[in-house]
Write a structure and sequence with these properties.
With about 425 residues, the protein is an all-alpha fold. Helix content is about 85%, strand content about 0%. The radius of gyration is 22 Å and the shape is globular. It starts with a helix and ends with a helix.
């Protein structure tokens, strides 16, 4: 009974869809950062080429990745830690989800591009339409129509298609400042180098997220199905908080990119300060919520598995405490990429799920057992925040130097 109650929760820790989602972010986020700077410089012609190239490239490469994933699905799931008892459910859900992920790749790319031009309402409508429809369709397909786990995937697929329709209407009504014409497609070195130098760090971040989930699953598997199943709900709950922060910073991204491109450093400093304050306030509230209601939250994912509830409760509280640092860390992770500082952005983006996390998850469980798995992410969060402090201080020193030089130049011009 324990294992049966945990199957749906366990599917939440399958990271294959996240890896495919990364392709949309590779082109979407990479293009968005560049587009914001181009719009700040009033270079609309280049911006049009960048938007069109990013959109069509993401769809083409996404389709290729989906075909490969479907062909090798079982070996991939097994490598990622899926147990034999859960494999039929994982295959049923993931195969449907992956096939229709082409819509999600399109949606993620468009979401970033649309956000870069400040059309936040359109991006919100597309996301909300898909999310609300998913909530409505899930119980219908899972229970009323009796499709079970496959029904959850079908409901998600239909929801993704609806979001795609919203973006297509936006394009065909010519509401966007970009044409998205195939004639504007320009897979050239000048365009792709700017897109990929920001997109690749984003892709690395998403891949490392999938790798970290896989490593947690692999480590938790040694402690039984209840410990493994608890990781799914914990990941989902913490992802909800992370997505809110990411959503908030989607508004920060175009302002920061435009301000940096237009060399309006006072506005850039104000945007950084405001984003850190508000994102951190949310993180504190979210931390208090998951800490206080951790038992009740985990109880929603199972009825009889008390071990799963206990493990999840500890993990939620530990992750909640370190989540306070997430807003500060993410603001600067976004900022470096928006400014076109690919090396710094790549290093900082890889810290939380890679550079800091991988050594911790390899070492800590050997010292602390199961608790080492549960506290691995919080420890990595603290280390990542420390690295962020040093990189942020260096960045502000650089920005202040440039701003001082601009002030001197303006003063000299006025004297002449």
């Amino acid at each position: 009974m324990k294992e049966q109650n945990s199957k749906m929760a366990l599917l939440g820790s399958v990271p294959v869809p996240k890896a495919l989602l990364a392709l949309g972010l590779l082109f979407g986020n990479g293009a968005a950062a560049y587009l914001s700077r181009l719009l700040g410089k009033c270079d609309k012609e280049t911006a049009n080429k960048v938007a069109s190239t990013a959109l069509y490239s993401s769809v083409i490469i996404g389709a290729i990745a989906i075909i490969i994933s479907v062909i090798f699905l079982k070996p991939i799931l097994r490598q990622l830690g899926a147990l034999d008892s859960v494999m039929p459910y994982a295959v049923s859900y993931t195969s449907i989800y992956i096939v229709f992920s082409i819509f999600n790749v399109f949606n993620v790319t468009m979401n970033n591009i649309v956000s870069s031009e400040g059309a936040a309402k359109t991006a919100m409508c597309a996301l909300m339409a898909g999310a609300i429809l998913n909530v409505i369709l899930d119980p219908i397909f899972i229970y009323s129509l009796g499709f079970g786990i496959a029904g959850a995937a079908i409901a998600t697929a239909i929801s993704q298609m609806v979001s795609t329709v919203v973006y297509l209407i936006y394009i065909f009504r010519k509401s966007s400042m970009f044409s998205f014409s195939i004639k504007e497609y320009s897979f050239t070195k000048d365009v792709m180098s700017e897109v990929l130098k920001i997109g690749i760090p984003t892709l690395v971040f998403q891949i490392l997220t999938s790798v970290s989930m896989s490593m947690i699953n692999g480590a938790a598997k040694d402690y039984g199905s209840s410990a493994l199943a608890a990781m799914g709900p914990v990941t989902k709950i913490m992802s909800m908080g992370s997505l809110v922060v990411f959503g908030f910073l989607k508004g920060f991204q175009p302002i920061a990119g435009y301000s940096y491109g237009a060399r309006k450093y006072d506005r850039l400093h104000a945007a950084i300060r405001t984003s850190i304050i508000w994102s951190t306030c949310f993180c504190v509230i979210f931390e208090l919520a998951v800490a206080i209601f951790s038992n009740g939250i985990m109880a929603q994912f199972t009825k009889n598995d008390m071990e799963m509830i206990c493990v999840g409760q500890i993990a939620l509280r530990a992750n909640g405490i370190s989540f306070i640092l997430f807003g500060f860390y993410t603001v600067y992770s976004f900022l470096f990429l928006v400014m076109g500082k690919a090396k710094e952005g790549c290093v900082l983006g890889a810290c939380r799920q890679g550079i800091c996390f991988i050594p911790v998850i390899l070492i800590l469980p050997n010292v602390m057992g199961l608790n080492g798995i549960l506290f691995a992410q919080p420890v990595a969060d603290v280390l990542s925040a420390m690295i962020t402090v040093f990189m942020a201080l260096h960045l502000h020193k650089e920005l202040n130097a440039v701003q001082s030089q601009m002030t001197i130049e303006v003063h000299n011009q006025q004297r002449q």
